[in-house]
Amino acid sequence: MDEKETRRDFIIRIFSVIGFLGSSILLLRNILLYIFPKVTPKKERKILIAREEELKIGEAKLLTISDKDLYIVRTQQGYKVFSAICTHLGCKIKWEAHNNRFYCPCHKGVFDINGKVVSGPPPRDLNSYRVEVSGKLIYIWFV
Amino acid sequence: MEAKELKLQKVVVGATAYLLIIVLILVSAFEVSKSRATEPKVDISGTTKKCVDCHLNRGVAVKLIDEWKASKHAQQNIGCYECHKAEQNDWDAFKCPESDIIVAKHPTPKDCAECHEQQVKEFENSKHAIAQMVMKAEGAEGPDRAVFEPLIATKHGCEQCHNIGNYWPDGSIGECDACHSKHQFNIAQARRPETCGECHIGPDHPHIEIFMESKHGNIYVAFSNKWDWNYKVGEQVPFNAPTCATCHMSAAPPAIKSTHNVSERLAWESQSPFSIRTSQYWGNKTWQEKREQMLSVCKQCHSKSFAEKYMLIADLNMLQYNEIWKTIVELIKKFKNYGLTITDEFFDGELKLTSWPKEGYDEEVEHLVYRTWHHEGRRFRHGAIMMGADFTQWHGIWDLQENLVKLMNKAAEHGIPEAKRWIASKDPNKFFLYPIYDVPGNPWGISSILYKGGALSMNRIKNYWEKVYANVKAAYEKGFLSEEQWKLYQELYDNRDKELGLPYSPPEILKEHMKVLAEEAKYVKENVATFTLPSSSPYYTSNSTKYDKKVAKK
Amino acid sequence: MVRIKNKKIINMRREKFSEWIFKRFPIDLQKISEMWEKVFVKEPIPEHMKNWFFALGATPLVLFVFQAITGILLTLYYVPSPDRAYESVRYITEEVKFGFWIRGLHRWGSNLMVIAVILHIVRVFFTKGYKAPRELNWIIGSFLLIITLTFCFTGYSLIYNQLSYWATTVGTNMIGEIPFVGKFLLLLIRGGIDVTHNSLIRLYNLHIGLLPTLMVVMIVLHIVLVRLHGVSKVYPDEPTYSFYPEHFYTVLQIMLFLLVALSTLTIVFPPGIGEPADPNNTPLHIKPEWYFFAVYSVLKILPLKFGIWFMFFVLLVFIFWPFIDEILLRRVKMKPSLHYIVGIAVILIFLFFTVYETIKY
């Protein structure tokens, strides 16, 4: 540099640089937010899925809500609702009444009536939904 | 380029960059403010989907689908089939064409009760549930429908409102969609006074008219479009004036819960020929408890003293009406003694409806009697208790007194001596053919002139207050007034001079007003009453029936 | 001691690394850095370029870069199928975070680009920047104009709302009216006799594939030619300044200012969606975008076949103007002031018909 930068020059330069950097960062931030949509958890809503006395103890029924398949089961302890998607690699499970179990045909995964893994490759229990029983009506909190 | 210019360029770059930052922040703010649609998602699946698809395809009642979608049922996955499911043998079973679905053409409260059991039960205990029955009692018949009007007229008339208490073939009672209409079942709609006003209207029970006349109704008209009609059930009603639902159904936390029993807080049965305190058979509560409930609602806005004073005066009006009715009943009995057509089955103090089909409605006296309780009497009572001043006065007590006078005249025509004497009498107290109730003062304030002057009945009748006190005491002892009400009455009675405004002299401006009135009276006398038109004599003289040429020529 | 030793080690490692790179990537750094200095840093810019009117060449370039970037971002969410196109555009506008902004930048960017290009042409015309030996650059420039307008036409059709669909129909119909090659071009663009799903995909392909490639090639040629010839001086001894840093800052200013302007326009006049395309329902008023109003209006007035020929003629005159201008000046000995009259007349006619078409209906 030929001459020393005066303080005023320095301030002006810093002023511009900060402005430029700031706007670039904001710009980049907005574009990144555009590219990577944030996955906000969808709000839960309460929906009616069944009435009491539709199921006997030990029985399971397949329902479809909003293109999602669910199983509602009735156990000694009450009602439970599971997603019908196997936790291994996403195949649809089937309820086998004669064997009292959920069976996944893809890799022979087995879940019991409480959704717990019994045997096979599935790494965890079936996804379940929060159940609310109000009088004779069975609701779930559905996402 | 000079260094200065370069510097300027840098400055401009920096400034533009800051401007860009501001704009980008605005863009972000805009982004954030865009409300992510919280429109609730409506699923159409299962049997409901079949219903919707078929109906859309054939164009049958398709707007109903939009209605349903806007309902809360739809958001909770309660679709067509949940309410319209039916068995083969149901009274309203209907097989949808070209399908195997059997639907109920008309869901009843039994279907609603599957989820809304509490509300249906509350409704069954209310007087809405006997609406149809009172129109047609077992073994008797509501006379208008039985005798007086062709049935075809009553189908679009009486039945339309009274079917709120319909008795269904499946054993249930009522019409839930009378207030929150299908298929939206919107609670905001049900809460509107106009909804009640569909039926609670008309010369015999002008409730919506009374409401609209009242201050409550005025505030409603002024501000209701800003109110949140979707307030949660059970929370305090966020309005600055009550509507029908507010007083008769909604909650007044913490003590008063919301209910579908519209009769739960009614301390009077005031549509009947006599006003009676509601019994414990309705709602398992004494009338005092019911009145306390109602007062709890009033006290959300009003002071205890105002609400109780108002109710005390209203109650005494209810009882006053009883006295008028009794007088008329006695009078009618006298008609019979003079060979008139009214049977005593008819007027035993109560209307025995069985006699209507035989005789009634065809003579003026019968009409007057009917109207006195069914129309004028109801208007008077309901106006008095629900702040409809005009209905209490011109459509109420005035009409009642007129009916009384007409009946007396009719009685005199028929030769009843008491009636003849009454007509000839010049006693100013003659219009009070019955005992009087009264309360010193009024609920809204103290006037320095209202209760003064010798012409007023209160001041004309000797020992007025003692007599009135004795009447009210009797009513209290008979159980028509509560302990608190009697205590309040005694307080007012002891303070009656103040309540009547007696110690207060009227303001100076009264003299001004009186002077103006006097001068106006003088003006009227001098200029209007004595003013003769130029075409002098009347065009018709009683002497000639012919056209008087002489007069006309002038 | 250790510090110096470490520095030595670092330097050694750096040298070894450089050797390794240059063995595999044998470029002459020296030559490149010289060229860079000459072409970019020290390029002499005549003083008159400080006038903002002369920045109108850089503006379309900056805008094109913006369009390319925002366009690529839009392709992350846009679906070029007739049943999903409109919905995807709505999704971008209403639901994607900052989707409305990116789309707004793209939309307003296209409008501003057309304006900038037209202003640039006006500037070059009136300053006679096309005089020999720069005629070829003018021709390339006219190609750039045509490509820009084609960009706009294809881009707008991708929204697949009512106006898109019917503007495409009418526009391609007009292309079909071109003598000799019309029917062929029509089939080429539409991918069928009517506007079908093929049409949308072809327009999409044009918009994101062929046209950007052509555009980039033309831009490079255009700029290279400008550089090779050098920016023409207004008068012989005009002083110059170097490209970097001054002119660079100017371009930076333009860039930032355009971003501000586009974002502001997006907020104040957000891009709308209109109604979804309905092939069975022709709307009452179909109009192309505003930059086509003049052509549209004139074609409506003149009989169709004649109009097309006339437009074609005008286009040819425009493309070969430098030569025509030369002929008019030298051979026909037209007065120089005629140049201005012609220019102003064309501008006025363009403006008149554009405004007329805008306020009509």
TrEMBL record, chain A:
<dbReference type="InterPro" id="IPR014349">
    <property type="entry name" value="Rieske_Fe-S_prot"/>
</dbReference>
<dbReference type="InterPro" id="IPR036922">
    <property type="entry name" value="Rieske_2Fe-2S_sf"/>
</dbReference>
<keyword id="KW-0812">Transmembrane</keyword>
<dbReference type="GO" id="GO:0016020">
    <property type="term" value="C:membrane"/>
</dbReference>
<keyword id="KW-1015">Disulfide bond</keyword>
<feature type="transmembrane region" description="Helical">
    <location>
        <begin position="12"/>
        <end position="36"/>
    </location>
</feature>
<dbReference type="GO" id="GO:0051537">
    <property type="term" value="F:2 iron, 2 sulfur cluster binding"/>
</dbReference>
<keyword id="KW-0411">Iron-sulfur</keyword>
<keyword id="KW-0408">Iron</keyword>
<dbReference type="Pfam" id="PF00355">
    <property type="entry name" value="Rieske"/>
</dbReference>
<dbReference type="GO" id="GO:0046872">
    <property type="term" value="F:metal ion binding"/>
</dbReference>
<keyword id="KW-0479">Metal-binding</keyword>
<dbReference type="InterPro" id="IPR005805">
    <property type="entry name" value="Rieske_Fe-S_prot_C"/>
</dbReference>
<keyword id="KW-0472">Membrane</keyword>
<feature type="domain" description="Rieske">
    <location>
        <begin position="47"/>
        <end position="140"/>
    </location>
</feature>
<keyword id="KW-1133">Transmembrane helix</keyword>
<protein>
    <submittedName>
        <fullName>Cytochrome b6-f complex iron-sulfur subunit</fullName>
    </submittedName>
</protein>
<dbReference type="InterPro" id="IPR017941">
    <property type="entry name" value="Rieske_2Fe-2S"/>
</dbReference>
<keyword id="KW-0001">2Fe-2S</keyword>
Automatic annotation (TrEMBL), chain B:
<keyword id="KW-1133">Transmembrane helix</keyword>
<protein>
    <submittedName>
        <fullName>Seven times multi-haem cytochrome CxxCH</fullName>
    </submittedName>
</protein>
<keyword id="KW-0732">Signal</keyword>
<dbReference type="InterPro" id="IPR036280">
    <property type="entry name" value="Multihaem_cyt_sf"/>
</dbReference>
<feature type="compositionally biased region" description="Low complexity">
    <location>
        <begin position="534"/>
        <end position="545"/>
    </location>
</feature>
<dbReference type="Pfam" id="PF13447">
    <property type="entry name" value="Multi-haem_cyto"/>
</dbReference>
<feature type="transmembrane region" description="Helical">
    <location>
        <begin position="12"/>
        <end position="30"/>
    </location>
</feature>
<keyword id="KW-0472">Membrane</keyword>
<dbReference type="GO" id="GO:0016491">
    <property type="term" value="F:oxidoreductase activity"/>
</dbReference>
<dbReference type="InterPro" id="IPR051829">
    <property type="entry name" value="Multiheme_Cytochr_ET"/>
</dbReference>
<feature type="region of interest" description="Disordered">
    <location>
        <begin position="534"/>
        <end position="554"/>
    </location>
</feature>
<keyword id="KW-0812">Transmembrane</keyword>
